[in-house]
Amino acid sequence: KILNFGHTFAHALERAFNYRYLKHGEAVGYGIRFAAELSKRLELLPPDDVELLNGVVHRLGFLPAINGIDEESVLGSFKFDKKAAGGAVQWVLLNGIGRPVIISGADIPHTALKETFKKIISE
């Protein structure tokens, strides 16, 4: 399961774009950034580690702009994620670099997802 780090948001993005705009690796790049930022918002990951991960993603290549994508089309796609269990998405987040943790979406406030989404698409 931990190998799915970054894939929950990535799959939602791919679905929202009808699997046409982003390559899978680009979507996973955004997914890594989303998971890192969400981990920070949940006080699992320190800001310096988020910056480190963002730097790694950026060094791997350019990510196409995703501003303008409908928030609800992405957030609503989480329910289709193959990792959902009992109706809740299972997020692979970080409790430090190299320390993955699986957290049920039922334990994550919707506002945290929305705020993280807005931050990621604005950068």
The chain-level mean pLDDT equals 89
Determine the CATH topology. Dehydroquinate synthase-like, alpha domain
**Secondary-structure element string:** HHHHEEH
CATH superfamily: Dehydroquinate synthase-like - alpha domain
State the domain count.
1
Q: Number of DSSP strands?
A: 2
Rg, Cα atoms, Å? 13 Å
Query: Counting H and I runs of at least 4 residues, what is the number of helices?
Result: 5
Major sheet summary line: 2 strands, antiparallel
Strand order of the largest sheet: 1-2
Q: What structural class do you assign from the helix and strand content?
A: mainly alpha
Which percent bin holds the helix content? 40-55%
Unreliable runs, pLDDT <50, ≥5 residues?
none
Q: According to CATH, what is the class?
A: Mainly Alpha
CATH-scheme architecture: Up-down Bundle
Proportion of residues in extended strands: 5-15%
The shape is globular
Termini separation (Å)? 28 Å
